[in-house]
């Protein structure tokens, strides 16, 4: 058998469509039901479904009245507040192209992004860095708030394949690329509802991330609103240690976070009795099996992991009704068509390593990289989109992740996945996070090196013998390098190439 799995067919595309209208389709029926609760100990600030839709369409009216027209690009420099998702949906509602960006970017970094997307307007919160000389008009967040009560704009309906929004991704290379997504991308997220989330209209989904993180924007806000569930977001500045109490107090039924948050909650050894929690969701990086097991033991709930990328969001996952086999990412979600391809662009035999690829007909796939035809062409090959990630598939369609194709390491002729070494090393109680790469130490000689973050550094003399109990000898790092932080891209994936480059530059 060959490594190709088609799990049914994707949803049919309507002839006239608007992503924002789809997300807010239940607003009229649900009215005063809370769509968003910004939570803290003993209190919350709520927006109902009718308030969200009113604000979104009012902002849409205000932006058009300010001189913007459908097709114009709007760079979002908003901080961690509800104005972020409201502005994002408002732009899409009236045919503008929002470009959400991380508030932590510096002015020079933002200037580079502006040179790529050429925005007509920047919408910014006070204190969020901007270019020294903004290339266009700047609207402030307070201007948006004044628009909430304006008359509602009509939804800009049209071809579901037309451009809806742009997000930046750095991948493992650290090179910023503008990923163009169509309105149809939100329909692909329908395949996650039961293929990953197990989400119902009665759920209260709490996401640990900030409003202005794309993982939060999709999983924490857009998807609950689409189905009519309530989104819970901790108020800005909430510490990880406060999350369990907030989950319990505000009756979270589903919790979504990156693996690092789960690890932090477990290491704090807090009371994790969460009677209303049904399960957790994880994405952004590979979830260590040790974290999965520890969370299950501490809470008596499971974590369901999803794999994806900025170019396609998530498309492989486990779910409450379809748990992932042990050691695997899960299976392609309902409606997805995935294969493991070899260098000849053909599916490899079951069980063999290859590149994880998605059928180019998937509605969640990007349109293109903006102004980067060569990069785009490298991704699309025949009927497939190449992810650059390595994996293998079993005869049930379950996919085991083996790391980035350009991150795989060689140890004495054995190919070693950095994920496996990282999963083992993070089990040490003093290691908060780590990244493992292959480093060239002299001509034609390279070794496996572990960069790690530890508040109380145990040092190589402790880590090496400890790790030898968890890994085969050939997988063992030969270098242990303490660092203050592991570099990550905007989508929270480890930038292993940057680690290698920075290390080379320091030698």
* Uncertain spans: none
Please report the total strand number as a whole number.
27
Shape: globular
Largest sheet: 9 strands, mixed
Examine the secondary-structure arrangement and name the CATH architecture of the domain at 407-506.
Answer: 2-Layer Sandwich
Distance between the termini: 48 Å
Rg, Cα atoms, Å: 23 Å
Please explain how this structure is put together:
This protein is of the alpha/beta class and 507 residues long. The protein has a domain at 407-506: ANL, C-terminal domain (GMP Synthetase, Chain A, domain 3). Helices cover 28% and strands 27% of the residues. It has a nine-stranded mixed sheet with strand order 3-2-11-10-12-13-14-15-16, sandwiched between helices. Strands 1, 17, 18, 20, 21 and 22 form a six-stranded antiparallel sheet that branches. Helix 3 (49-65) crosses helix 4 (83-93) and helix 11 (259-267) packs across helix 12 (289-299). The chain is globular and about 65 Å long. 50% of the residues are buried. The mean pLDDT is 92.
Secondary structure blueprint with pairings:
Layout: E1 4-6, H1 19-23, H2 27-30, E2 34-40, E3 43-48, H3 49-65, E4 73-77, H4 83-93, E5 97-100, H5 107-117, E6 121-124, E7 137-140, H6 141-145, E8 163-169, E9 177-182, H7 185-188, H8 190-197, E10 204-207, H9 214-227, E11 230-234, H10 243-249, E12 254-257, H11 259-267, E13 279-282, H12 289-299, E14 302-309, E15 313-317, E16 331-332, E17 337-341, E18 354-359, E19 368-369, H13 373-379, E20 380-381, E21 384-393, E22 399-404, E23 409-411, E24 414-416, H14 418-425, E25 433-442, E26 445-453, H15 460-467, E27 479-482, H16 496-506
Helix pairs in contact: 3-4, 11-12
């Amino acid at each position: 058998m060959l490594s190709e799995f088609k799990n049914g067919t994707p949803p049919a595309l309507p002839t006239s469509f608007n992503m924002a209208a789809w997300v807010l389709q239940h607003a009229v029926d649900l009215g005063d039901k809370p769509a968003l609760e910004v939570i803290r100990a003993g209190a919350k600030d709520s927006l109902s479904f009718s308030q969200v839709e009113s604000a979104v369409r009012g902002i849409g009216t205000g932006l058009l009245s300010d001189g913007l027209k459908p097709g114009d690009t709007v760079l979002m420099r908003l901080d961690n507040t509800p104005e972020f998702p409201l502005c994002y949906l408002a732009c899409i509602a009236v045919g503008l192209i929002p470009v959400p960006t991380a508030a932590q970017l510096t002015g020079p970094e933002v200037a580079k992004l502006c040179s790529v997307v050429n925005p007509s307007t920047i919408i910014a919160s006070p204190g969020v860095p901007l270019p020294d000389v903004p290339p266009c008009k700047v609207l402030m967040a307070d201007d948006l708030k004044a628009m909430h009560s304006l008359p509602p704009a009509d939804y800009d309906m049209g071809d579901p394949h037309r451009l809806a929004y742009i997000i930046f991704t750095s991948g493992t290379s650290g090179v910023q690329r503008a990923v163009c997504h169509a309105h149809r991308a939100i329909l692909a997220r329908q395949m996650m509802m039961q293929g990953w989330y197990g989400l119902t209209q009665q759920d209260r989904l709490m996401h640990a991330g900030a409003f202005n993180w794309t993982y939060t924007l999709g999983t924490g806000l857009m998807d609950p609103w689409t189905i009519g569930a309530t989104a819970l977001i901790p108020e800005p500045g909430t510490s990880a240690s406060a999350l369990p109490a907030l989950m319990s107090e505000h009756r979270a039924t589903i919790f979504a976070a990156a693996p690092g948050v789960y690890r932090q909650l477990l290491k704090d050894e807090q009371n994790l009795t969460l009677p209303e929690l049904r399960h957790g969701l994880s994405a952004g990086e590979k979830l260590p099996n040790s974290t999965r097991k520890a969370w299950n033991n501490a809470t008596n709930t499971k974590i369901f992991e999803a794999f994806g990328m900025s170019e396609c969001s998530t498309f492989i996952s486990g779910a409450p009704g379809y748990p992932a086999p042990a050691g695997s990412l899960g299976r392609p979600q309902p409606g997805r068509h995935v294969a493991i391809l070899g260098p000849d662009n053909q599916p490899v035999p079951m069980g063999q390593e290859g590149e994880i690829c998605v059928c180019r007909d998937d509605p969640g796939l990007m349109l293109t990289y903006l102004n980067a035809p060569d990069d785009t062409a490298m991704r699309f090959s025949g009927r497939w989109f190449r992810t650059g990630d390595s994996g293998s598939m079993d005869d049930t369609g379950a996919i085991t992740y083996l790391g980035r194709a350009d991150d795989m390491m060689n140890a004495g002729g054995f190919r070693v996945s950095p994920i496996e070494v990282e999963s083992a090393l993070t089990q040490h109680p003093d290691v908060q996070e780590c990244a493992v790469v292959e480093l060239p130490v002299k001509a034609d000689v390279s070794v496996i090196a572990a960069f790690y973050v530890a508040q109380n550094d145990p040092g190589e003399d402790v880590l090496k013998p400890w790790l030898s109990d968890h890994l085969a000898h050939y997988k063992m790092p030969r270098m242990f390098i303490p660092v203050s932080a592991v570099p990550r891209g905007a989508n929270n994936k480890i930038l292993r190439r940057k680690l290698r480059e920075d290390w080379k530059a320091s030698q």
